[in-house]
Every structure is written in structure tokens, then in C-alpha cells.
Amino acid sequence: MKTQNKVILSIGSNQGNKLDYLDQCVHFIHHEIGTVIQISKVYQTPSWGFESDDFFNACLLIHTFQSPQKIWSKIQSIEKKMGRIRSEQLGYEPRKIDIDIISFNDEIIETQDLQIPHPQMQNRLFVLRPLQEIQTEFFHPKTNESISELIVECSDKSVCNPIGNLPFEISKYTFNTFNYIAIEGNIGAGKTTLTNKIAEDFNAKSVLERFADNPFLPKFYEDQNRYAFPLEMSFLADRYQQISDDLAQFDLFKDFIVADYHIFKSLIFAKVTLAEDEYRLYRNLFDIIYREMPKPDLYVYLYQNTEKLLANIKQRGRSYEQEIPAEYLEKINSGYLEYIKSQTDLKVLIIDVTNRDFVENQEDYIFVLDEIRKKTISNS
Fold first, then answer.
1. How far apart are CA 166 and CA 20, in angstroms?
2. pLDDT digits (tens, 9 = 90+) for 258-303
3. What is the pLDDT of residues 135-156, one digit of tens each?
4. What's phi and psi for 189, nearest 5 deg?
5. Is 295 exposed, middle or buried (0-12, 13-18, 19+ CB in 10 A)?
6. What residues form DSSP beta bridges with 351?
7. DSSP string spanning 271-323?
8. Residue 216 in contact with residue 269, Cβ under 8 Å?
9. What would the mean pLDDT of 202-217 be, rounded to a whole number?
């Protein structure tokens, strides 16, 4: 399962409307590189290494799936878009915007183009002070010195005072009317990846299906008629047990919970895979269980067409999934849509992500968040 990288960036400006430039910069980073999770105050400091106007500086913590090289490429693109002109002369110079990668997880990266952690960070108070504000437990990946130790030892003794705050875009995604969101989708739609990302970005409690532990799943893809009923029964029992156990740990009225499935998917898959007499028995058992289950405040269905689903399944490389026929995926999708139409008391949001990639493209992830936010607003 792909996990997000935690990246600290330093931004600065000493030309024109400096606060406005920093605000624009945060917006571009949030929409093009990664989710801005924390922003320090803006600090005013004298120019460092050359004579010029004072700088306004800040540090950001972002979550992103992007590699260091891709982040650096996008940083250069943002700087260029904002009007920074890099001259060929050596040394420091005034600039509308400056973006540096300070750290990338706890990794040490030394290539021709990139040096991470930033080789000058320990010498720059305008980096260390805002960094300490957002990461009090930060340790230098090379020296293992704490941020407090780095500040004490820093040779830069210039004045570095906070002067204000920047707008924080993630704060508009409060989701405060929905405590429990279920994110559903067909096989390969990306529901688990999205659930993990939202949970991490918004400090939510996640409930993830334990599909990989089901011993009947590989057998089912080899012989569906023989293993359909034990597969669906084991899924139902496991989902009931997991949801009961996991949700019991949380306060459904206070905690923000994101799940990558809703137990009703058991009935959707069973209707497709089981023979008629098996389905009737299964339905009787399911109805008893379903009445006891808490219902999500919002049910999000990620729609993707069959061609895209098959491509995703092939890319993630699970051997037992590679022979899934297109017809099976289409039946599952029809089952979901029929279920959604029948749910008059459940708040449902269908998001078409066929032409979107919320792992590789931050703008697509922001699109999904905006769709959920619209539903949140309409519900309030």
C-alpha cells in the first residue's frame, strides 16, 4: 500500500507584496505538489548572505506521494510561474519567491540536483525558527540533533520575529457535519488509497477492510462456483466483526471516521456471485446483521469505467485478480448503482474519477475533497 511522504518546505520573499506572494505560493503548493498540513507564522528576517530588503519566511509541512525529484521539478515550475528569474551569476539575489526542500521524511538524498536535508538549514535561523513552530520533535536526519539543539548552535543570530499568519486552505475542509464517511467503489477504484490519504491528512480514524487475509479469495478467482458461498459468508462475518470492533473504539459523535467500505457491499457482491438459492439464504442472514450496523453519515462512491478499472487492477499486480473479466466488474458496478438508487435515507455522493488520478495528481485529490466539501455544505 502506497504511503505518503512527509516533506518540509521553506518559502520566502523579499520583493513586492511579500505576504501576497507567500499566500500564492502556498496555494500552488497545496494544489500542485501536496496537501499543506501545517503552516508556521510568517517571520521577518534581514536578507541572508547579501544586502537587500528584509525577507518574509515560513515553513510548511506537506503530505505527498511525489518523489523528491518530481517535487523539485514542480517547485521550479511554481517559482517560474510566480515570476522568479534565476540569473546565471553566483551568489544570492532578491527574489519574489524562493522555495527550498528542507527535509523529505527522514531520508538523506545527495544527487547532482538535490541535497536533502538542505545543506544550509542548520545555519539559517529563518528556517529553524518556523520549523520548530510546526515540528517541535524534528531531528536532523544527518546529525540527529533536535530542532532545539540546532537553534542553540546556529551561528545566525539575526532578528527573526513572527509578523502574521497565512491563510490555511485545509481548514475549509472541516467535514464537521459528517463524523463517519464510507468510501466505496468497484475493485481497483482506489477507495483504500483515498481513505488512507484522507485519514492521514485530516487526522481521522480509519477503518480498512482486511480483504488480503481472506483465504477463499484466490480460490474464488480460480473456481467461482465452488468457492462463492464460503467466500461471501467469510467476508460478511469478517466485516461484521471488524466494523463492530473498530467502531466500538470510536465515538461516532465526536471522532472523524473514514472507512474504505460499507457492510452493504457484502450483499452487492453476493448478488453477483451466488446462485439464486444461496443468495436467498445469504440475504436472510445479512438482513439480521445489517439492522445492527451503524450507518455512515456520508456514502461516497468512486465511479470508474471498466477499462480504467482493468488497467488499475493490472498495475497493482495482485496475481489472483489478473483474470477478473470485464463482465464481472460491470455487474458489480450495476449492483452498487442499484443499491445507491434504493437508499432514500442515506446521503450518497457519486464522484466520477475515471479520468482522475488522486495519487499522482494533487489537483485531482483536491477535486475529490471539494466534492465532499460541497456535500458537507449542502448538508449543513
1. 9
2. 999 999 999 999 998 899 999 999 999 999 998 888 889 999 999 9
3. 999 999 999 999 999 999 999 9
4. -80, -15
5. middle
6. 302
7. HHHS-HHHHHHHHHHHHHHHTTSPPPSEEEEEE--HHHHHHHHHHHT-GGGTT
8. no
9. 82
Q: Which residues pair with 46 in a beta bridge?
A: none
pTM value is 0.88
Location of C-alpha cell 524534528: 138
Q: Are 126 and 133 in contact (CB under 8 A)?
A: no
Q: What is the pLDDT of residue 49?
A: 62
Of 187, 135, 176, the closest CA to residue 314 belongs to 187
The residues annotated as belonging to the active site are: 260
Tell me whether strands 42-45 and 55-64 are parallel, antiparallel or unpaired.
antiparallel
Question: 269: which residues sit within 8 A by CB, 6+ positions away?
Answer: 232, 235, 332, 335
Distance CA 131, CA 43 (A): 11
- Closest by CA to 340, choosing from 119, 203, 185, 166, is 185
Question: φ, ψ for residue 152 (rounded to 5)?
Answer: -60, -40
Give the sign of the dihedral formed by CA 192, CA 193, CA 194, CA 197.
positive
Rounded to 5°, the CA angle 203-101-363 comes to 55
CB 103 within 8 A of CB 122: no
C-alpha cell at position 172: 475549509
Residue 28 to residue 24: CA distance in whole angstroms: 6
- Strand extents, DSSP E, the chain: 5-13, 35-39, 42-45, 55-64, 98-104, 109-110, 115-116, 161-164, 180-185, 205-207, 257-259, 298-303, 348-352
Residue 336 phi, psi dihedral angles, 5° rounding: -60, -45
Q: Report the amino acid identity of residue 192.
A: T
Structural contact between residues 84 and 40, judged by C-beta atoms closer than 8 angstroms: no
Cα diameter, the chain: 83
Q: How far out from the chain centre does Cα 202 lie? A: 9
| Rg of the chain on CA atoms, in Å | 25
Cell numbers for 89 = 551569476
Task: Specify the DSSP element, H or E, that contains 371.
Answer: helix 362-379
